[in-house]
Hints:
This protein is of the alpha/beta class. Helices cover about 45% and strands about 15% of the residues. The relative contact order is 0.13.
Amino acid sequence: MFHDISYYKPDLHDCINRVRDFFSLAPGAPQALIYTFPSVLTLRGPALNQYDFEHDMQSYLDDYLEYQAQLMEIRLGIEDDWILSVVPYMGIGEFSAFVAGEIEFGEDTSWAAPVINEKSDLETLCLDPNNKWFRKLNEATRYMVRKIAPYRIPLGRGYYSPLDLAWALRGEAIYMDFYEDPQFVHNLMEFALSATEWFARAQAAEIFAPDVVHELSAWHCGPNRVAVSEDISSLISPSHYAQYGAPYTQRLFDSFGIGEVHCHSAGPHVVPEFLKLKRVRQIQIVADPNTRRPVEILADLMDKNPELFGKSPDVPVIAVDASPQEAVDYYDLSRQTRIVFSVVTENAEEARHAVDIFRAKQKQC
Protein backbone atom coordinates (compact mmCIF):
# COMPACT_ATOMS: atom_id res chain seq x y z
CA MET A 1 0.00 0.00 0.00
CA PHE A 2 2.68 2.50 1.06
CA HIS A 3 6.32 3.10 0.15
CA ASP A 4 9.02 4.81 2.15
CA ILE A 5 8.33 8.55 2.27
CA SER A 6 11.43 9.22 0.15
CA TYR A 7 9.72 7.44 -2.76
CA TYR A 8 7.02 10.12 -2.83
CA LYS A 9 9.40 12.91 -1.86
CA PRO A 10 12.80 12.37 -3.54
CA ASP A 11 13.90 15.81 -2.31
CA LEU A 12 13.00 14.84 1.26
CA HIS A 13 16.33 15.89 2.80
CA ASP A 14 16.32 19.31 1.15
CA CYS A 15 12.66 19.84 2.03
CA ILE A 16 13.23 19.00 5.68
CA ASN A 17 16.13 21.44 5.92
CA ARG A 18 14.20 24.17 4.11
CA VAL A 19 11.17 23.91 6.39
CA ARG A 20 13.21 23.64 9.57
CA ASP A 21 15.18 26.73 8.61
CA PHE A 22 11.94 28.58 7.89
CA PHE A 23 10.34 27.80 11.25
CA SER A 24 13.55 28.40 13.19
CA LEU A 25 14.28 31.71 11.45
CA ALA A 26 17.70 30.47 10.38
CA PRO A 27 19.89 32.86 8.35
CA GLY A 28 19.09 32.52 4.66
CA ALA A 29 15.80 30.70 5.29
CA PRO A 30 12.99 31.19 2.76
CA GLN A 31 10.50 33.93 3.55
CA ALA A 32 7.55 31.75 2.57
CA LEU A 33 6.67 28.13 1.90
CA ILE A 34 4.24 26.46 -0.47
CA TYR A 35 2.19 23.35 0.29
CA THR A 36 0.19 21.76 -2.50
CA PHE A 37 -2.73 19.35 -2.26
CA PRO A 38 -3.62 17.95 -5.68
CA SER A 39 -6.87 16.04 -6.25
CA VAL A 40 -8.11 16.17 -2.65
CA LEU A 41 -11.39 17.63 -3.90
CA THR A 42 -11.76 15.37 -6.93
CA LEU A 43 -10.60 12.00 -5.56
CA ARG A 44 -13.21 11.16 -2.95
CA GLY A 45 -12.43 9.14 0.14
CA PRO A 46 -14.51 6.18 1.35
CA ALA A 47 -18.11 7.01 2.31
CA LEU A 48 -18.33 6.94 6.08
CA ASN A 49 -21.92 5.69 6.22
CA GLN A 50 -21.03 2.51 4.37
CA TYR A 51 -19.14 1.08 7.35
CA ASP A 52 -20.01 -0.52 10.67
CA PHE A 53 -17.78 1.41 13.06
CA GLU A 54 -19.26 -0.39 16.03
CA HIS A 55 -18.15 -3.87 14.99
CA ASP A 56 -15.72 -3.55 12.06
CA MET A 57 -13.86 -0.26 12.20
CA GLN A 58 -10.78 -1.88 10.66
CA SER A 59 -12.49 -2.22 7.27
CA TYR A 60 -12.91 1.55 7.14
CA LEU A 61 -9.38 2.22 8.34
CA ASP A 62 -7.93 -0.08 5.67
CA ASP A 63 -9.95 1.63 2.91
CA TYR A 64 -9.08 5.07 4.25
CA LEU A 65 -5.39 4.24 4.30
CA GLU A 66 -5.65 2.97 0.73
CA TYR A 67 -7.22 6.31 -0.21
CA GLN A 68 -4.35 8.15 1.47
CA ALA A 69 -1.87 6.00 -0.44
CA GLN A 70 -3.59 6.98 -3.71
CA LEU A 71 -3.26 10.67 -2.86
CA MET A 72 0.43 10.16 -2.17
CA GLU A 73 0.94 8.47 -5.53
CA ILE A 74 -0.72 11.41 -7.26
CA ARG A 75 1.71 13.89 -5.73
CA LEU A 76 4.76 11.78 -6.56
CA GLY A 77 7.78 14.02 -7.08
CA ILE A 78 6.07 17.37 -6.47
CA GLU A 79 8.86 19.51 -5.03
CA ASP A 80 6.84 21.70 -2.72
CA ASP A 81 7.47 22.13 1.02
CA TRP A 82 4.88 19.67 2.31
CA ILE A 83 5.97 16.56 4.18
CA LEU A 84 3.36 13.89 3.49
CA SER A 85 1.25 12.63 6.36
CA VAL A 86 -1.86 10.66 7.23
CA VAL A 87 -4.52 12.48 9.23
CA PRO A 88 -7.24 10.37 10.90
CA TYR A 89 -10.72 11.21 9.66
CA MET A 90 -14.11 10.04 10.83
CA GLY A 91 -15.96 13.33 10.47
CA ILE A 92 -16.46 15.95 13.15
CA GLY A 93 -18.45 13.66 15.45
CA GLU A 94 -15.24 12.15 16.77
CA PHE A 95 -14.13 15.47 18.24
CA SER A 96 -16.68 15.38 21.07
CA ALA A 97 -18.01 11.82 21.32
CA PHE A 98 -14.93 10.76 23.30
CA VAL A 99 -16.60 12.63 26.18
CA ALA A 100 -20.22 11.59 25.64
CA GLY A 101 -22.80 10.98 22.95
CA GLU A 102 -23.17 8.88 19.85
CA ILE A 103 -21.76 9.54 16.40
CA GLU A 104 -24.10 9.68 13.41
CA PHE A 105 -22.26 9.04 10.16
CA GLY A 106 -23.09 10.68 6.85
CA GLU A 107 -21.35 10.12 3.54
CA ASP A 108 -18.45 12.52 4.05
CA THR A 109 -18.71 13.65 7.67
CA SER A 110 -20.31 12.77 10.99
CA TRP A 111 -22.08 14.48 13.87
CA ALA A 112 -22.54 14.04 17.59
CA ALA A 113 -25.58 15.67 19.14
CA PRO A 114 -25.13 18.01 22.14
CA VAL A 115 -25.41 16.23 25.50
CA ILE A 116 -25.79 19.22 27.86
CA ASN A 117 -29.45 20.01 27.27
CA GLU A 118 -29.93 21.29 30.81
CA LYS A 119 -27.15 23.11 32.62
CA SER A 120 -27.24 20.50 35.37
CA ASP A 121 -26.19 17.89 32.77
CA LEU A 122 -22.66 19.27 32.97
CA GLU A 123 -22.32 17.75 36.44
CA THR A 124 -23.01 14.27 35.02
CA LEU A 125 -20.10 14.36 32.56
CA CYS A 126 -16.77 12.77 33.35
CA LEU A 127 -13.59 11.73 31.58
CA ASP A 128 -14.16 8.00 31.31
CA PRO A 129 -11.35 5.85 29.86
CA ASN A 130 -13.99 3.22 29.16
CA ASN A 131 -16.04 5.55 26.97
CA LYS A 132 -16.68 3.64 23.76
CA TRP A 133 -15.46 6.33 21.40
CA PHE A 134 -12.47 7.25 23.54
CA ARG A 135 -11.33 3.64 23.23
CA LYS A 136 -12.17 3.33 19.54
CA LEU A 137 -10.40 6.54 18.56
CA ASN A 138 -7.27 5.50 20.42
CA GLU A 139 -7.46 2.08 18.77
CA ALA A 140 -7.85 3.73 15.36
CA THR A 141 -4.80 5.94 15.89
CA ARG A 142 -2.78 2.97 17.16
CA TYR A 143 -3.75 0.93 14.09
CA MET A 144 -2.94 3.67 11.57
CA VAL A 145 0.38 4.61 13.16
CA ARG A 146 1.52 1.01 12.99
CA LYS A 147 0.54 0.82 9.33
CA ILE A 148 2.50 3.91 8.27
CA ALA A 149 5.44 4.08 10.69
CA PRO A 150 7.56 1.49 8.82
CA TYR A 151 7.52 3.87 5.86
CA ARG A 152 8.53 6.94 7.93
CA ILE A 153 5.20 8.59 7.16
CA PRO A 154 4.07 10.81 10.05
CA LEU A 155 0.57 11.04 11.45
CA GLY A 156 -1.05 14.43 11.82
CA ARG A 157 -3.63 15.07 14.54
CA GLY A 158 -5.75 18.02 15.60
CA TYR A 159 -8.52 18.60 18.14
CA TYR A 160 -11.37 20.89 18.99
CA SER A 161 -10.24 23.85 21.04
CA PRO A 162 -11.84 24.02 24.49
CA LEU A 163 -14.36 26.51 23.08
CA ASP A 164 -15.24 24.33 20.09
CA LEU A 165 -15.64 21.32 22.38
CA ALA A 166 -17.84 23.32 24.75
CA TRP A 167 -20.05 24.27 21.80
CA ALA A 168 -20.24 20.65 20.63
CA LEU A 169 -21.32 19.49 24.09
CA ARG A 170 -23.77 22.35 24.76
CA GLY A 171 -25.01 23.18 21.26
CA GLU A 172 -26.44 26.50 20.11
CA ALA A 173 -27.59 27.34 23.64
CA ILE A 174 -24.03 28.37 24.48
CA TYR A 175 -24.51 31.63 22.58
CA MET A 176 -27.25 32.69 25.02
CA ASP A 177 -25.20 31.36 27.93
CA PHE A 178 -22.51 33.91 27.10
CA TYR A 179 -24.97 36.65 28.09
CA GLU A 180 -27.22 34.95 30.64
CA ASP A 181 -24.85 32.79 32.69
CA PRO A 182 -21.14 33.59 32.30
CA GLN A 183 -20.19 31.46 35.31
CA PHE A 184 -21.81 28.38 33.77
CA VAL A 185 -19.81 28.99 30.59
CA HIS A 186 -16.58 29.19 32.59
CA ASN A 187 -17.46 25.97 34.40
CA LEU A 188 -18.11 24.33 31.04
CA MET A 189 -14.86 25.71 29.66
CA GLU A 190 -12.90 24.28 32.59
CA PHE A 191 -14.33 20.86 31.82
CA ALA A 192 -13.70 21.26 28.07
CA LEU A 193 -10.09 22.23 28.72
CA SER A 194 -9.53 19.16 30.88
CA ALA A 195 -11.22 16.93 28.29
CA THR A 196 -9.20 18.33 25.39
CA GLU A 197 -5.89 17.83 27.17
CA TRP A 198 -6.89 14.35 28.38
CA PHE A 199 -7.78 13.16 24.89
CA ALA A 200 -4.82 14.85 23.18
CA ARG A 201 -2.36 13.24 25.59
CA ALA A 202 -3.98 9.83 25.11
CA GLN A 203 -3.62 10.23 21.34
CA ALA A 204 -0.01 11.36 21.70
CA ALA A 205 0.74 8.23 23.71
CA GLU A 206 -0.32 6.17 20.67
CA ILE A 207 1.41 8.34 18.08
CA PHE A 208 4.70 8.39 19.97
CA ALA A 209 4.73 4.87 21.36
CA PRO A 210 8.39 3.77 21.60
CA ASP A 211 7.97 0.88 19.18
CA VAL A 212 6.61 3.07 16.34
CA VAL A 213 8.35 6.40 16.74
CA HIS A 214 10.73 7.48 13.95
CA GLU A 215 12.62 10.58 12.89
CA LEU A 216 9.55 12.21 11.30
CA SER A 217 6.94 11.20 13.89
CA ALA A 218 6.82 14.71 15.36
CA TRP A 219 6.74 16.56 12.05
CA HIS A 220 3.04 17.46 12.13
CA CYS A 221 2.27 17.02 15.82
CA GLY A 222 4.21 16.23 18.95
CA PRO A 223 4.00 15.35 22.62
CA ASN A 224 4.85 19.00 23.33
CA ARG A 225 2.65 20.49 20.57
CA VAL A 226 -1.11 20.61 20.15
CA ALA A 227 -3.17 21.86 17.20
CA VAL A 228 -6.75 23.02 17.71
CA SER A 229 -9.63 24.36 15.65
CA GLU A 230 -11.22 27.64 16.69
CA ASP A 231 -14.16 27.37 14.30
CA ILE A 232 -16.83 28.70 16.66
CA SER A 233 -14.90 31.93 17.04
CA SER A 234 -16.18 32.89 13.58
CA LEU A 235 -19.66 33.25 15.08
CA ILE A 236 -18.81 35.36 18.14
CA SER A 237 -17.30 38.74 18.88
CA PRO A 238 -13.63 39.30 19.63
CA SER A 239 -14.58 40.32 23.18
CA HIS A 240 -16.46 37.07 23.76
CA TYR A 241 -13.52 35.07 22.43
CA ALA A 242 -11.15 37.03 24.68
CA GLN A 243 -13.41 36.29 27.66
CA TYR A 244 -14.43 32.68 27.04
CA GLY A 245 -12.04 31.20 24.49
CA ALA A 246 -8.55 32.67 24.71
CA PRO A 247 -7.82 31.99 28.42
CA TYR A 248 -8.52 28.27 28.02
CA THR A 249 -6.74 27.85 24.71
CA GLN A 250 -3.77 29.65 26.25
CA ARG A 251 -3.72 27.29 29.22
CA LEU A 252 -3.80 24.32 26.85
CA PHE A 253 -0.85 25.72 24.88
CA ASP A 254 1.01 26.47 28.09
CA SER A 255 0.51 22.89 29.25
CA PHE A 256 1.82 21.36 26.04
CA GLY A 257 4.45 23.98 25.29
CA ILE A 258 3.50 24.88 21.71
CA GLY A 259 0.14 25.44 20.02
CA GLU A 260 -1.31 25.80 16.54
CA VAL A 261 -4.63 27.39 15.58
CA HIS A 262 -6.94 26.49 12.70
CA CYS A 263 -9.61 29.07 11.83
CA HIS A 264 -11.78 30.13 8.89
CA SER A 265 -12.09 33.04 6.52
CA ALA A 266 -15.64 33.57 7.83
CA GLY A 267 -14.12 34.92 11.05
CA PRO A 268 -11.35 37.40 10.23
CA HIS A 269 -12.48 39.67 13.07
CA VAL A 270 -11.10 37.23 15.67
CA VAL A 271 -7.70 36.57 14.08
CA PRO A 272 -6.07 39.47 15.99
CA GLU A 273 -7.09 37.70 19.21
CA PHE A 274 -5.28 34.56 18.06
CA LEU A 275 -2.20 36.64 17.35
CA LYS A 276 -2.21 37.82 20.97
CA LEU A 277 -1.90 34.24 22.27
CA LYS A 278 1.51 33.07 23.44
CA ARG A 279 3.43 29.93 22.44
CA VAL A 280 1.71 29.80 19.02
CA ARG A 281 3.71 28.20 16.23
CA GLN A 282 1.22 28.72 13.40
CA ILE A 283 -2.21 30.18 12.63
CA GLN A 284 -4.00 28.64 9.66
CA ILE A 285 -6.76 30.54 7.85
CA VAL A 286 -8.74 28.26 5.53
CA ALA A 287 -11.13 29.42 2.83
CA ASP A 288 -14.91 29.37 3.29
CA PRO A 289 -17.45 29.83 0.48
CA ASN A 290 -18.84 33.33 -0.07
CA THR A 291 -16.16 35.06 2.00
CA ARG A 292 -13.06 37.07 1.24
CA ARG A 293 -10.02 35.10 0.22
CA PRO A 294 -7.61 34.29 3.09
CA VAL A 295 -4.75 36.12 1.34
CA GLU A 296 -6.90 39.25 1.12
CA ILE A 297 -7.81 38.91 4.79
CA LEU A 298 -4.15 38.57 5.72
CA ALA A 299 -3.14 41.63 3.69
CA ASP A 300 -5.88 43.67 5.35
CA LEU A 301 -4.94 42.46 8.85
CA MET A 302 -1.29 43.30 8.27
CA ASP A 303 -2.26 46.79 7.12
CA LYS A 304 -4.53 47.46 10.10
CA ASN A 305 -2.55 45.65 12.81
CA PRO A 306 1.14 45.85 11.81
CA GLU A 307 2.21 45.54 15.46
CA LEU A 308 0.89 41.94 15.56
CA PHE A 309 3.13 40.74 12.73
CA GLY A 310 6.85 40.40 12.17
CA LYS A 311 9.68 37.93 11.93
CA SER A 312 10.52 36.73 15.39
CA PRO A 313 9.97 33.53 17.40
CA ASP A 314 7.16 35.32 19.25
CA VAL A 315 5.15 35.89 16.06
CA PRO A 316 3.41 32.83 14.61
CA VAL A 317 3.68 31.70 11.03
CA ILE A 318 0.51 32.46 9.08
CA ALA A 319 -0.77 29.71 6.77
CA VAL A 320 -3.37 30.76 4.21
CA ASP A 321 -5.32 28.95 1.53
CA ALA A 322 -4.39 30.38 -1.86
CA SER A 323 -4.66 29.71 -5.56
CA PRO A 324 -1.41 29.21 -7.49
CA GLN A 325 -1.55 32.78 -8.76
CA GLU A 326 -2.45 34.22 -5.35
CA ALA A 327 0.65 32.61 -3.86
CA VAL A 328 2.70 34.61 -6.35
CA ASP A 329 0.68 37.82 -6.22
CA TYR A 330 0.75 38.00 -2.42
CA TYR A 331 4.26 36.64 -1.96
CA ASP A 332 5.62 40.06 -0.99
CA LEU A 333 3.60 39.93 2.23
CA SER A 334 6.24 37.48 3.41
CA ARG A 335 8.73 40.33 3.59
CA GLN A 336 6.87 41.39 6.76
CA THR A 337 5.89 38.06 8.33
CA ARG A 338 6.43 34.37 7.65
CA ILE A 339 3.73 32.82 5.44
CA VAL A 340 2.80 29.36 4.24
CA PHE A 341 0.69 29.32 1.08
CA SER A 342 -1.57 26.24 1.01
CA VAL A 343 -2.63 25.51 -2.57
CA VAL A 344 -5.35 23.01 -3.47
CA THR A 345 -5.33 22.03 -7.14
CA GLU A 346 -7.45 19.85 -9.42
CA ASN A 347 -4.53 17.61 -10.34
CA ALA A 348 -0.78 17.04 -10.01
CA GLU A 349 0.05 18.98 -13.16
CA GLU A 350 -1.52 22.12 -11.71
CA ALA A 351 0.34 21.53 -8.44
CA ARG A 352 3.69 21.30 -10.26
CA HIS A 353 2.88 24.49 -12.13
CA ALA A 354 2.02 26.21 -8.83
CA VAL A 355 5.40 25.20 -7.40
CA ASP A 356 7.25 26.32 -10.55
CA ILE A 357 5.80 29.83 -10.59
CA PHE A 358 6.22 30.13 -6.82
CA ARG A 359 9.91 29.16 -6.98
CA ALA A 360 10.41 31.63 -9.83
CA LYS A 361 8.94 34.37 -7.63
CA GLN A 362 11.20 33.33 -4.76
CA LYS A 363 14.26 33.69 -6.95
CA GLN A 364 13.21 37.21 -7.87
CA CYS A 365 13.13 38.12 -4.18
